UniProtKB/TrEMBL annotation:
<dbReference type="InterPro" id="IPR012677">
    <property type="entry name" value="Nucleotide-bd_a/b_plait_sf"/>
</dbReference>
<comment type="similarity">
    <text>Belongs to the ESRP family.</text>
</comment>
<keyword id="KW-0694">RNA-binding</keyword>
<keyword id="KW-0677">Repeat</keyword>
<protein>
    <recommendedName>
        <fullName>RRM domain-containing protein</fullName>
    </recommendedName>
</protein>
<dbReference type="InterPro" id="IPR000504">
    <property type="entry name" value="RRM_dom"/>
</dbReference>
<dbReference type="InterPro" id="IPR035979">
    <property type="entry name" value="RBD_domain_sf"/>
</dbReference>
<dbReference type="InterPro" id="IPR036397">
    <property type="entry name" value="RNaseH_sf"/>
</dbReference>
<dbReference type="InterPro" id="IPR050666">
    <property type="entry name" value="ESRP"/>
</dbReference>
<keyword id="KW-0507">mRNA processing</keyword>
<keyword id="KW-0508">mRNA splicing</keyword>
<feature type="domain" description="RRM">
    <location>
        <begin position="282"/>
        <end position="365"/>
    </location>
</feature>
Length: 686
């Protein structure tokens, strides 16, 4: 092998010019000069025998191709085929393709890991080139290694290739995916397509159909994508592009698993497989279609007007997305045969079908699979639970997406709850609505609430940095209006605690009769059991109230009497009824019930005093209200309903019969039993 030419080019950076490289040329000029230099040597660079040789993968995969793609420079096709000198060295010597005749020789470096050119030179016994120019010396050392490999009988026959076009492909949920070849890209612009993501990873080979755009529960792109590469080596190089940029946005790149990729890109429907197997190069997603739209209307939409474009396979190239019950969602996917059809089709973005404007987005096979999989899952869930469709909405348990931030807990009211949000509202709309209070939100403190079908419930929880911030936010933003497009909705804002958030966000509403979401305010807890002395206090109060109620009741049940002029006679029309002595409990005053006596006071019989009959005011039972009120008989303590169940809560046996017998005969018909009277706890001996 003979070296027939040598040339060095300096590329001048365009974003941050350096003083040392002011003499260099822009990248496109250097590419053109290099091509002219190759042709001046009477060598055809497009010949199959022409090869580029690099020291490792990064010079072309990580430097030249990404830089040229970012500057929209079209490189000649021979830059997509090269030989990696380190791999050729490993194939020739470490894998013992050819045994070296030199002995003794140092042991070869580990397979696939020659760290530098010096390792290869030392193994082959070649003296490194010494010179002032580092780059010229490195090129001459590479030439020496290539000459030795060829002289030892090995030929460079397996070039590396760089894929410049992303190929479409169909992935099934039954496929086996190597988990060491998957990455997750986060922070993508929402309008990014699979081609944009492939350009971000330009220089690395993405597998067929290897870009899967992730969708939110609402079916919209959430700025994430799963990318599958052809090998682990390319995956490792992709991880080094962490926080590189697409326009002004930096992209985060992390490892992912094969299960993650299959959950997004894996298809499970024959409908999707048949639709995607038509060999289309372009897939366009339509959104906002009329619910009664037909495939023919879609064909007319693209074939009419300026610059018409034909849909692949006519009516068979249109796929409508439907809900579990068969109703249209307003979305459809359309196939086109050539890449040149993409700009023509997308130029109809926001044009009308009838009275509705249609949104157009470039889509992917993985997005088609993901959307149809969700439709299939919803249909299966509906078929498995036929009563779910007729179940009331109140029975649905609220579920949420798993928040990235740990939700706070406790009774401190440092959170706010938003209710009445538009279903299309996103986090940015909430931040705009909160205005100056948005700066008081903790990191990842906005939590959207979704129902059991994964649809927005119109609620959100916001974690604030203090109770004061939450209080001021609730006070100033309650019943304020949120403008969303042409809609204007007033939003309810309540201050709440972290426990309230956790109960709703984790689906903690278990009783069937409980409300779907928690009401604003502090969580209600069962009242504590009253202390023994407070219990006695409560029993005595209830007993006294019952006696007072009975006396007033008896007075109100008297029949009408004739009102005489003043002075009134001392003899009433009816005397007070006399109750049997043995049916009355032992009398005890309110004060004595709480005296600190060592022994319980003895019971003493109660004798009805012989008193003169009293004259009572005349009331007509049918026309006048009773002189007692049920509202006055409510318990004086808040824990009245928490009394032990073992305590009796009814009058003694026979008490109602004796009271009814004491009433006048004319009053027994309307009140044949005392079951209509309120029942009060009664405790003999207190």
């Amino acid at each position: 092998m003979t070296v027939i030419g040598q040339r060095e080019y300096a590329v001048r950076p365009t974003r941050r010019p350096s003083e040392e490289l002011q003499t260099g040329q822009p990248l496109d000029i250097v590419v053109q000069q290099f091509d002219e230099f190759i042709r001046s040597l009477q060598v055809d660079p497009h010949s199959p025998l022409f090869r580029l040789v690099t020291d490792g993968q990064p010079p072309l995969r990580q430097c030249l191709h990404p830089e040229a793609c970012g500057k929209e420079i079209n490189l000649p096709t021979y830059y997509a085929r090269f030989h990696d000198l380190r791999k050729e060295y490993v194939r020739a010597y470490t894998l013992r393709a050819v045994a070296t005749p030199r002995a003794p020789a140092p042991p070869p470096p580990p397979p696939d890991h020659p760290s530098t050119l010096l390792d290869m030179l030392n193994y082959l016994g070649i003296t490194p080139y010494s010179g002032d120019n580092f780059y010229a010396a490195e090129v001459k050392d590479m030439a020496s290694i290539i000459q030795r490999i060829i002289s030892d009988g090995f030929r460079l026959e397996l070039p590396e290739t760089i894929d410049l076009v992303l190929e479409t492909g169909i992935c099934s949920k039954d496929d086996e995916i190597d988990g060491n070849c998957i990455v997750r890209a986060r922070g993508l612009p929402w309008q990014s397509s699979d081609q944009d993501i492939a350009k971000f990873f330009r220089g690395l080979n993405v597998a067929k159909g290897g870009v899967a755009l992730c969708l939110s529960p609402q079916g919209r792109r959430n700025g994430e994508a799963l990318v599958r590469f052809v090998s682990q080596e390319h995956r490792d190089m992709a991880l080094k592009r962490h926080k590189h940029h697409i326009g002004p946005r930096y992209i985060e790149v992390y490892r992912a698993s094969g299960e993650d990729f299959l959950s997004v890109a894996g298809g499970a429907t024959c409908e999707a497989a048949a639709f995607l197997s038509r060999g289309a190069q372009v897939i366009v997603r339509m959104r906002g279609l009329p619910y009664d739209a037909t495939p023919q209307q879609v064909l007319d939409f693209f074939s009419s007007g300026d610059d018409p474009v034909q849909v692949l396979d006519g009516l068979e190239g249109v796929l409508f997305v439907r809900r579990a019950d068969g109703r249209a969602t307003g979305d459809a996917f359309v196939l086109f045969s050539k890449e040149e059809d993409a700009p023509k089709a997308l130029s109809r973005h926001r044009k009308l079908i009838g009275a509705r404007y249609i949104e157009l987005f470039r889509s992917t096979t993985a997005e088609v699979q993901q959307v149809l999989n969700r439709s299939l899952e919803s249909r299966a869930s509906s078929a498995g639970t036929p009563s779910a469709a007729s179940a009331p909405a109140e029975g649905l348990l609220p579920v949420t997406l798993v928040p990235q931030h740990v939700i706070t807990s406790g009774t401190a009211k440092d959170c706010v709850r938003l209710r009445g949000l538009p279903y299309e509202a996103q986090v940015e709309h909430i931040l705009t609505f909160l205005d100056e209070f948005a700066k008081n939100i903790v990191v990842q403190g906005v939590h959207m609430v979704y129902n059991a079908q994964g649809h927005p419930s119109g609620e959100a929880f916001i974690q604030m940095d203090s109770e004061t911030s939450a209080f001021l936010c609730a006070q100033q933003k309650h019943h304020r209006y949120m403008t969303f497009g042409k809609k204007q909705r007033y939003i309810e804002v309540f201050q709440c605690s972290g426990d309230d958030m956790n109960l709703v966000l984790t689906g903690g509403v278990t009783p069937a009769t409980s409300p779907k979401v928690l009401s604003p305010g502090t969580l209600l807890s069962p009242p504590p059991a009253p202390a023994p002395r407070l219990l006695a206090h409560h029993i005595a109060q209830q007993s006294l109230l019952a006696r007072q109620h009975e006396n007033l009741l008896l007075a109100s049940l008297r029949p009408p009497m004739t009102l005489l002029p003043y002075p009134r006679p001392q003899t009433p029309a009816y005397p007070l009824p006399m109750l049997p002595q043995q049916m009355l409990p032992a009398k005890r005053t309110y004060e004595r019930a709480f005296s600190q006596a060592d022994a319980a006071p003895a019971k003493r019989p109660y004798t009805v005093p012989q008193m003169a009959p009293l004259s009572l005011p005349v009331f007509s039972y049918g026309a006048s209200a009773p002189i007692f009120s049920y509202a006055n008989t409510s318990p004086m303590l808040s824990y009245a309903n928490a009394l032990p169940t073992a305590v009796p809560t009814a009058l003694p046996a026979g008490y109602g019969t004796a009271l009814s017998a004491a009433l006048p005969p004319s009053m027994t018909s309307p009140f044949s039993a005392l079951s209509m009277f309120p029942t009060y706890p009664y405790y003999p001996g207190v």
